[in-house]
Design a protein that fits this description.
- The complex is a heterotetramer of chains A (971), B (216), C (178) and D (464).
- Helices cover 39% and strands 1% of the residues of chain B.
- Chain B has 9 helices and 1 strand.
- Chain B is extended and about 95 Å long.
- The mean pLDDT of chain B is 91.
- Chain D contains 16 helices and no strands.
- Classes of the chains: A alpha/beta (971), B mainly alpha (216), C alpha+beta (178), D mainly alpha (464).
- Chains in contact: A-B, A-C, A-D, B-C, B-D, C-D.
- Strand 1 of chain A pairs antiparallel with strand 1 of chain B.
Chain lengths: 971, 216, 178, 464
């Protein structure tokens, strides 16, 4: 688009189109913003602030009014569409794009936190050649030169991608250098799904589960609600079937077999604790039972199947798996089996077979692969390593992914890269790979990049830059274009050219505008294909699979926060408690209480983990509900060469990872090491409710029998106080929140969204160890029952905005009082910091600024200030803070409505950051004066209750008791 | 034997007692009086600006409307400082060579903003919203004074919390018809009480003493 | 005592006796100085009970009342805020400060009234010019008649004091006086 | 109350009571003995050594205060949920210690207990200095101490007021009143002795300084007449005041809904505990001073005996309160209370402090049933120190252990003090000692006039 051309901002949702004129203004705004923010931290009343107007005002921008733009964030090749709030040119908050299939309006913690990465002060700022600053033209000379060998010594290593643009550019590169080879590798992604589909269908298809229609789910080592490319979509659809609107209403049932408790496992009605290697046995046993049921159509010969599965199935308890199988079969057509990413291909194949038996055509779509595939010109990482080792590679171009750190340890890429004559690495940080590469080019952050991407179902979305690049750098598209022969490629122009070319006759500008506004290319999802099971290969593969060996199995999994290590320098994610363990700033060896007892190990003991001649030292962490004889390790920590935030955090589990056993292996040896313990910073230390009625739950059957089981925890209480003004329908707003515990997975997206929206500082490991975390919203997780097989419940806990708030009357200076619309207000600038309010808060949701956190914790300093929400005060040391129900959003909406003729605020017009992010939509926020809102409707359900209701605090946050739906056949 | 203290010591003690009491009282009251004086807030002090911009000249001689430059006042929290191109819109034709406009031209051609000094500088924990005020009958001059008579802008009102609250307690006293928002000469206090009450009712103005109205 | 005649006695008992003796001689403006309060001295001088308590009492009430009123003004009248759904006029919560301020006013007013009644602080007084008077705070007891007494006669008073056991007598007051 | 009744109350029957005053000194001798420590170097080496230690402690306090104000109270060990810890413990402990001084000087005066006479000056000073230490903590404890004056209703330009529903403005009012009234009371008592110093101290400069503070007091009939009434009036005011102060301090806890704080027994329980710890502190200070300054004739075994009995009585009130707390926790059926009293305190982290409190406050004072123990100054000091440890532990238990385990187990967390916390606590002890030692050197710490009066009375009685 021509910069001089007037641009009409598009009205309405979801995005505000394309940001205009950024090239001229970006740095300017950074200056202005940093001045404003410098003042925001202190009193600032004695020195005169400056006002820096634009020299030329961008046409669609009114300073002070934030805009929202669409873009996409990709992880391991799959995109999630988001809306980015931009305050005066600074991207400041990521929100979900309701139009994007992978988001549906929600966001995960990683998406929320990615905005912090943009402003990471430790991002590299210059191109390096042999560790010395170098210039782009020198690089283009090296990369763009002609090669007499047709590319025989040229190798590319990049992350899997679905980007049509990158696909086209790779084609161009391979046309120029036909002998070159490309490797796609993502440390946190396995290929067993497509291999499994290959076994089952004869071709690598992708299974997309449509949980809108699924009543019974068997999840096998699959955390489909909190990880994987479509987890936000799965979560929302799952919650739709799971939420029980009234006693006796239908709800779905979830069976989970897994090792470490996952968010998905914590919602299971029946959870089978199995080593990852034993999960296949569960599915085999279910398949055997299914095959024996009368109504099941079996696409393979029964006898052969039973024979192939017998060694595995025999290990399972028949009544249990029989009940599961019968339940699945009863719901044939609305039941599905979900196999986890890290299960072997045979299990995936068997999953496809089971789904076929369950007539899953309407619940599981099979799609052609979404990711770019180059056929014979592609080679895997092991092959690349062998070639380098053999000396066959002279130029290696690594486009993101940090393979020197994250590749399987047995490939030893860190050493191999140094043996390549010319190694070029495009990376987000000056990391392990940068250290061994000759050339290092800083990669652009997604929010400053142009490109395109595909969601898991193939839907195409554009990636648009929302800010001029903060530092020198490049992107994979530009790098490939250089290799393809372009001298001065620019990603935005490459993208436009690609799509102009692709659309041919269609009105390109209209497409461009609409796509950027909507965030997706409409109708671009891949069509579902019908594929019959191919019995031959499937049966032989199943028969060939050996039963798992005995011994301790180690499971290597991407971390729920730092993923494969790429977010290790993101202080928000480091400090965001991991689901279920509430661990921050560390990874640990998770093991069951029984295994720990057998090894004589307790929490925080240091242990040596050895596998196949490699070993690491790790702190132990006892994880209730973990499978015995198994240890789960999370990848992405123990960075050897990383920026300050990630430095010294955790241990490197990649050291135990080999190419052939990327998901883990049996045979782990654990030695307890003496010496001092390794302190683990966790935000929760007590996991029992001590029998207190804090997080209520019942089974669906109990709920039907006794709908009023929460009666003790709700309803009016006698009081000496004067009555409170009520809130009639249609009256002035009375803000309130309802949270359904039935569908809370404990994933933490809400917590991360809150942090991004409300300028919440990080406190570092030391701060967490001292119980000084600042998160306004936390997720309490309680375990009930035996620690070997506990029942779990998550309870998001935030300021309850009590109508009779105990915190308020003890404040000596009226710094916390009640607003007429029902908010428990916290006025930072009035607070003197007695902390009396915190003592008297029975929910302990108040947070105190023990230090000037910006001064005290380096991670809060520097450029990250540019992320801050200008509508929220940055808190000084010595003041209390807490959840405000995002009062800045409420007030902005209220002002808008008042300006528009004092109209009432519409239902759903405003919501809090947590409710907005929640993948399962478990948090509902609205005004009590809108009785039709989900928030108000939920409160009228009989399972509504208030935490600590008996204290008479009359919280505005109400909870819906968790309802489980166990199979009555299983005792 | 002579007494330990001379006779005048009684007077000295009396003086000392009075001085101590007076000093104590002064130590308490003086700061209270001090914070109520205009100079502690630099009220009424014209602030030097990088460009000698004269509101008096632009609004009176040239008849330029407030909103011509402060464009976002009806829709955003801040009224908006005009971008340099707005200045140049006229001054590329009028006084294109004036040395007084040197900083403007330099800013325009270099792309570096003009660093205006903030005159009405509220603390960062105060969220004042222009839009709601001008849309609800609070005129420019109510808070900013007679900008049209200021050769150099100064802060006319105390801008203390108490000053804000005085209006927020009884807003109807300071309302004017929406047509008069930018009228510098209009005196809302001069309207009959019934007119102001009718205005308040028409615009739906209410007393708002809610803390989070301004602090969040 | 602005001016008068003083006599030095050795024991508190002698001091009481001297006061009684002086009164018997018809003197009314008698004063005495002792290191500690002497039993019976005030009775002997026919002084009434101090009334400081009755002076202080209304001040104490006023202090307490003002404190209560101020709390009501701040929390219920001037800036009424919804604080935890409690009543604006939270009477029970206002009691502690009301009480404390009553006590505080009483103590401070008591001290001020004491100073006012006794003329303190007064670093110099004619009696301090008297030779040996410094032992009035240690172990001597001085009794005297003020020159303002209607029956005052310097020689007669000196005579009376000597008769009543004074080891020495002295004139306190301006040197030029009689 | 007659003398025999008093005797029956304050001592066991046999053997005969030690007298309140030994020997028959003349007024001059007595005065000389009691006020001469102010200028005689007799006590210097011990005093100097103690003063040096106290000065070191005060330096430590200055350091800890500076660090706290400069960096924020993050340098303390406090956290969420334990938002109050050492700061408030020390506050309550020091305030409590102050209570014995007022109790001795005011309540015993009203009850006409003559044994108060020799020790009231010194206990009043102890009160004042303890309140100074106590007053430091609420200030330091603020997140933004520079805005402390927002607790005072003054006409601010922001037109915001304090919230008088909170117990903290009550605290501020109570502590300020307590300090002021104690100061007035102490100063008034000091007036006659300042007059003595003015008249008897060596050196003109010294005499002039004391003379200024003596305000010209000369013991005239008029001055004594009003003096006695005002002194009695202040005692009458101080008596309900001292009860109210710790009641209000206890309201910091009792008005909340924290399990184990939310309790109506707190005011009397706190007052008893305060006097208990205060008497222990009196004994701790009195025994060495009496020895160093050779005051065995003025502060006799009778005094120590009475103090020990007061400790015994108050210890039983405290024990009774513990029992009632446990009973109510059980009787209420509240799971939160029951957990706090029967699980958290005896077994959770920090339970060592709980057991220390049990031993020091319940078992140790029972030694005082034995007369021989009460007659042994050395043993009394040991017991008194242990009681002070116990009472500090009690506040730790009430504040920290309660906050560590409140309503939601998810937010339970443990507390550990930092070096700054400890430095502050030790530092206030140093500062207290510093003030106290300075007081010993600058003022007669036995009320000379009152003892002289008492001695006169006792002689008069003997004659009868």
């Amino acid at each position: 688009m021509n910069d001089d051309e007037p641009f009409e901002p598009a009205e309405g949702r979801p995005g505000d189109g394309e940001p205009d004129g950024i090239t001229r203004r970006a740095m300017l705004e950074l200056c202005g913003a940093s001045v404003a923010l410098a003042a925001a931290t202190g009193c600032g009343q004695n020195k005169r602030d400056k006002l820096l107007p634009y020299t030329v005002n961008p046409p669609d921008l009114t300073p002070g009014i934030p805009l929202r733009f669409t873009t996409s964030l990709s992880l391991d090749g799959y995109a999630t569409g988001v809306l980015v709030r931009v305050n005066d040119g600074r991207p400041s908050k990521i929100e979900g794009n309701p139009e994007h299939p992978a988001s549906l309006g929600a966001t995960g913690a990683m998406e929320e936190a990615s905005v912090l990465g943009l402003y990471d002060p430790q991002r590299p700022r210059a191109i390096l050649h042999r560790r010395a600053p170098a210039a782009w033209p020198a690089l283009t000379r090296v990369l763009g030169q002609d090669r007499p060998d047709r590319g025989a010594g040229l190798r590319f290593l990049l992350e899997p991608t679905g980007s049509p643009l990158l696909g086209a550019l790779l084609d161009r590169v391979l046309r120029r250098f036909p002998a070159a080879r490309v490797t796609f590798h993502a440390a946190a992604r396995s290929d067993s799904g497509s291999l499994g589909a290959g076994l089952a269908f004869g071709r690598p298809l992708q299974a997309v589960h449509d949980l809108r229609k699924t009543d019974v789910i068997l999840a096998l080592d699959a955390d489909f609600l909190a990880s994987g490319p479509f987890h936000l979509r799965h979560a929302q659809h799952f919650a739709g079937r799971r939420r029980i609107a009234a006693p006796g209403a239908p709800m779905s049932r979830l069976y989970v077999a897994e090792a470490a408790l996952s968010p998905t496992g914590s919602l299971a009605d029946h959870r089978l604790q199995r080593r990852p290697g034993d999960v296949h046995g569960v599915l085999a046993a279910v398949a055997v039972e299914l095959a024996g049921l009368p109504d099941v159509a079996l696409p393979v010969p029964k006898e052969a199947l039973l024979a192939a599965l017998a060694p595995h199935a025999a290990r399972e308890d028949r009544p249990l798996v029989g009940a599961i199988a019968r339940d699945l079969a009863r719901h044939a057509g609305s039941a599905s089996v979900i196999v986890g990413e890290w299960q072997p291909p045979e299990t995936h194949a068997l999953g496809h077979l089971c789904n076929a038996m369950l007539r899953s055509e309407s619940t599981v779509d099979l799609l052609s692969p979404t990711l770019v595939s180059l056929g014979a010109q592609e080679q895997d990482l092991a092959a690349l390593a062998r070639e380098i080792d053999a000396g066959g590679v002279d130029t290696l171009v690594i486009l993101e992914g940090n393979p020197a750190y994250a590749a399987p340890a047995d490939l030893d890429l860190e050493r191999l890269i140094t043996r390549v004559a010319t190694s070029v690495y495009l990376g987000s940080y000056d990391d392990e790979t940068a250290a061994v590469s000759q050339w290092f080019i800083p990669a652009r952050h997604p929010l400053e990049s142009w490109g395109d991407a595909r969601a898991y179902d193939g839907t195409i979305s554009l990636i648009q830059a929302l800010i001029e690049p903060l530092h020198e750098g490049s992107s994979p598209a530009e790098m490939l274009a250089v290799v393809a022969g372009d001298a001065h490629p620019e990603a935005r122009l490459l993208l436009r050219a690609h799509w102009q070319d692709r659309l041919k006759d269609r009105d390109f500008e209209a497409f461009w505008r609409d796509t950027l506004k909507l965030g997706v290319v409409t109708g671009s999802s891949s069509p579902a294909v019908t594929a019959p099971i191919v019995p031959g290969a499937l049966l032989s593969a199943l028969a060939a699979k050996a039963p798992p060996a005995a011994g301790i199995e180690v499971a290597l999994r991407p971390d729920s926060r730092v993923h494969d290590g790429r977010f290790a320098n993101n202080a928000w994610l480091q400090e965001l408690p991991r689901p279920l363990t509430k661990l921050t700033w560390d990874n640990a060896a998770l093991m069951s209480p029984a295994l720990a007892a057998r090894l004589g190990v307790t929490d925080e003991d240091r242990v040596r983990l050895s596998l196949g001649g490699r070993s690491v030292e790790a702190p132990a962490l006892i994880a209730p509900g973990h499978a015995d004889e198994a240890v789960t390790l999370h990848l992405g920590y123990g960075r050897r060469r990383a920026e300050p935030v990630a430095r010294g955090v955790g241990f490197d589990a990649y050291r135990l990872r080999t190419w052939t056993a990327r998901s883990g292996a049996v045979g782990l040896e654990i030695t307890r090491l003496g010496g001092a313990k390794h302190p683990l910073a966790r935000t929760q230390m007590h996991w029992s409710t001590e029998g207190r009625p804090l997080a209520l739950r019942a089974t669906a059957a109990e709920y039907q029998k006794n709908p009023d089981f929460t009666a003790e925890q709700r309803g009016p209480l006698p009081s000496l106080m004067p009555p409170l003004p009520g809130s009639g329908a249609g009256g002035p707003p009375q803000w309130a929140m309802t949270i359904d515990l039935s569908i809370c997975t404990g994933c933490g997206a809400c917590e991360q969204a809150c942090q991004a929206e409300n300028n919440i500082f990080v406190v570092g490991k030391e701060g967490i160890l001292k119980s000084r975390e600042m998160h306004w919203l936390r997720i309490d997780t309680y375990y009930e029952g035996p620690s070997e097989a506990p029942r779990v419940i998550h309870e998001p806990m935030l300021c309850q905005h009590c109508e009779r708030a105990p915190c308020e009357y003890v404040c000596p200076v009226n710094a916390t009082v009640h607003s007429p619309d029902g908010l428990n207000e916290m006025i930072y600038n009035r607070c003197v910091g007695t902390r009396f309010c915190s003592n008297n808060c029975p929910y302990k949701v108040r947070r105190f600024n023990w230090f000037d956190w910006e001064d005290h914790v380096p991670a809060n300093q520097g450029l990250v200030r540019l992320q801050r929400n200008p509508e929220v005060t940055v808190r000084q040391r010595g003041v209390m803070e807490k959840c405000t129900f995002c009062v800045q959003r409420l007030r902005a909406t209220e002002l808008g409505a008042r300006i528009e003729g004092n109209r009432p605020i519409r239902e759903g017009e405003v919501t809090t950051a947590c409710a907005q992010a929640c993948p399962t939509r478990a948090i509902q926020f609205d005004s009590l004066s809108n009785p039709g809102s989900a928030m108000a409707r939920w409160r009228r359900e009989p399972r509504n209750f208030a935490v600590l209701h008996e204290l008479g605090t009359q919280p505005r946050v109400n909870y819906l008791a968790r309802i489980d739906n166990p199979n009555p056949e299983i005792g | 034997m002579a007494a330990l203290f001379p006779r005048w010591s009684n007077t000295a003690v009396r003086v000392a007692v009075i001085a101590a009491l007076g000093g104590g009282a002064a130590a308490v009251t003086a700061p209270m009086i001090w914070v109520r004086t205009p100079w502690v807030r630099h009220q009424n002090e014209p602030i030097d600006q990088p460009v000698q911009f004269d509101h008096r000249h632009h609004t009176q001689d040239d008849g330029i409307h407030c909103v011509y430059c402060h464009t976002s006042v009806y829709k955003a929290g801040n009224a908006g400082i005009p971008s340099t191109d707005k200045c140049m819109g006229c001054h590329s034709q009028i006084w294109p060579r004036s040395p007084m406009l040197d900083p403007v031209r330099r800013a325009y051609f270099s792309g570096t903003p003009i660093p205006w000094n903030k005159v009405h500088d509220l603390p960062d924990f105060v969220y004042f919203n222009h839009a709601i005020h001008v849309n609800k009958g609070v005129g420019c001059s109510t808070c900013h004074g007679r900008i049209d008579t200021m050769p150099q802008v100064y802060q006319a009102a105390p801008l203390t919390m108490g000053w804000c609250l005085n209006c927020h307690r009884r807003p109807e006293a300071h309302l004017r018809p929406l047509s008069e928002i930018t009228n510098m000469r209009f005196e809302p206090e001069a309207q009959p009480e019934s007119v102001r009450a009718a205005l308040a009712a028409e615009l739906g103005v209410r007393s708002n003493l809610d803390c989070s109205a301004c602090h969040r | 005592m602005r001016a008068g005649v003083l006599g030095e006695l050795m024991t508190p008992e002698a001091m009481v006796a001297a006061i009684v003796g002086l009164r018997a001689r018809g003197y009314r403006r008698i004063d005495a100085f002792s290191p500690y309060p002497v039993h019976g001295a005030e009775e002997a001088a026919e002084m009434k009970r101090s009334r400081i308590d009755w002076i202080v009492f209304p001040f104490a009430l006023a202090g307490a009342g003002a404190a209560y009123l101020l709390q009501w003004y701040c929390n219920a009248f001037d800036y009424p805020l919804n604080v935890g759904g409690r009543p604006l006029h939270s009477a029970p919560a206002f009691i502690p400060i009301t009480f404390e301020m009553g006590v505080l006013t009483a103590a401070i007013v008591g001290l001020i009234v004491y100073f006012a009644l006794t003329g303190l602080p007064e670093l110099w007084s004619p009696v301090f010019e008297v030779e040996g008077f410094e032992r009035a705070s240690i172990d001597r007891f001085w009794v005297g008649v003020d020159a303002g007494d209607p029956r005052f006669d310097r020689a007669a008073v000196e005579q009376a004091l000597v008769e009543l056991g004074a080891a020495r007598v002295a004139w306190a007051g301006p040197r030029w006086a009689p | 109350m007659s003398e025999t009744e008093t005797a029956a109350l304050t001592s066991s029957a046999t053997p005969p009571l030690a007298p309140l005053l030994l020997g028959h000194p003349t007024d001059a001798e007595l005065t000389h003995q009691l006020i001469s420590p102010v200028w005689t170097p007799r006590s210097r080496p011990a005093w100097l050594a103690a003063f040096g230690v106290a000065a070191l402690g005060t330096t430590l306090l200055l350091y800890a205060v500076t660090v706290t104000v400069w960096k924020g109270i993050g340098v303390w060990g406090n956290n969420i949920p334990v938002a109050w810890a050492f700061g408030i413990i020390n506050f309550v402990w020091w305030i409590g210690i102050g209570h014995a001084g007022t109790f001795i000087s005011a309540i015993l005066l009203l009850l006409e207990q003559r044994w108060r006479t020799s020790i009231n000056r010194f206990t009043e000073a102890m009160t004042l200095f303890a309140v100074v230490q106590a007053g430091l903590f609420p200030l330091l404890h603020l997140g933004r101490p520079w805005f402390f004056y927002w607790l005072v209703p003054y006409p601010a330009t922001m037109q915001a007021w304090p919230n008088f529903r909170s117990a903290l403005p009550w605290d501020a009012a109570a502590v300020f009143t307590y300090f002021t009234v104690s100061l007035v009371f102490w100063y008034l008592g000091l007036l006659p002795d300042l007059a003595k110093l003015r008249d008897a101290a060596p050196g003109r400069t010294r005499r002039m300084i004391y003379g200024i503070f003596a305000l010209g007091f000369r013991g005239s009939l008029e001055q004594h007449r009003h003096y006695r009434l005002l002194y009695g009036l202040l005692a009458g005011l101080a008596t309900p005041l001292v009860l109210s102060v710790h009641s209000i301090v206890s309201a910091d806890f009792a008005i909340t809904l924290v399990p184990s704080w939310h309790s109506t027994i707190f005011p009397p329980f706190f007052v008893a505990g305060a006097i208990f710890s205060g008497f222990a502190m009196v004994v701790t200070l009195l025994v060495p001073i009496r020895r160093i300054f050779g005051l065995e004739n003025v502060i006799t075994l009778r005094h120590l005996d009475n103090l020990a009995k007061m400790m015994l009585v108050t210890s039983w009130i405290v024990i009774y309160s513990y029992l009632i707390e446990d009973f109510i926790a059980w009787y209420s059926g509240s799971p939160y209370e029951k957990y706090q009293f029967f699980v958290a305190r005896p077994f959770a982290p920090g339970s060592m402090v709980f057991w220390t409190m049990q031993v020091c406050n319940i078992l140790v004072p029972q030694l005082l049933w034995w007369r021989r123990v009460r007659a042994s100054p050395g043993l009394l000091v040991v017991i008194a120190v242990l009681v002070n440890v116990g009472m500090w532990s009690e506040r730790f238990v009430i504040i920290v252990l309660s906050l560590q385990r409140d309503y939601l187990p998810s937010s339970w967390a443990d507390y550990a003090p930092t070096r700054v916390d400890i430095a502050l606590f030790v530092g206030t002890m140093g500062f207290f000692m510093l003030l106290f030692l300075a007081f010993l050197r600058l003022f007669p710490f036995i009320p000379v006039a009152e003892v002289a009066e008492l001695s006169h009375e006792l002689r008069a009685e003997e004659k009868v």
